[in-house]
Amino acid sequence: MQALIFWGVILIMALIVEFNTAALISVWFAVGALAAYIASFFGDFIAQLGTFVFVSTLALVLTFVVFKKKPFQPQKNVTGNDLFIGKNALVTENVDNVRGLGRVKMDDIDWCAVSENGNNIPADTIVSIVSVKGSTLTVKPVA
Fold first, then answer.
1. pTM of the entire structure?
2. Cα 83 from Cα 106, distance rounded (Å)
3. Where are the domains of the chain?
4. 128 Cβ contact partners less than 8 Å away, ≥ 6 residues apart
5. Whole-number pLDDT of residue 48
6. Which CATH architecture describes the domain 80-141?
7. 72-80 long-range CB contacts below 8 Å, 24 or more apart?
8. Distance from CA of residue 42 to its chain's centroid?
9. Per-residue confidence (pLDDT) for residue 122, from 0 to 100
10. Which one, of 20, 42, 18, 44, lies nearest residue 31 by Cα?
11. E-strand spans in 66-135?
């Protein structure tokens, strides 16, 4: 009878702590205490204590396995002009790196442009934006 009271008190205390913290502090002990409470009907105190330790440990391990987060992988925050990389634009003025000429239009905005590989790109060609430096887009023809 004393074991029933002992494990019942441990169970209630663990649940009170868990409900007041909501941070998975004692939920494993509550599960272990419940198992030990049930075991108190069948075995001596050493068996109950073993049941409490085993079930609490098992609950702890299973919780971490089930709720394990993926390793932290910082995401690259793409902001500003970097949002344009990979988008398509239309060449409105021949792109000529040697003469410093070239204009493209993307989303109704007119940009200075240079060719990625230095080759000339004729007007009315669809290009892909490779990089942005200031107000100049580096572009390449879409294959």
1. 0.48
2. 12
3. 2-66, 80-141
4. 86, 87, 88, 89, 139, 140, 141, 142
5. 92
6. Beta Barrel (2.40)
7. none
8. 47
9. 93
10. 18
11. 88-96, 101-106, 109-115, 126-133
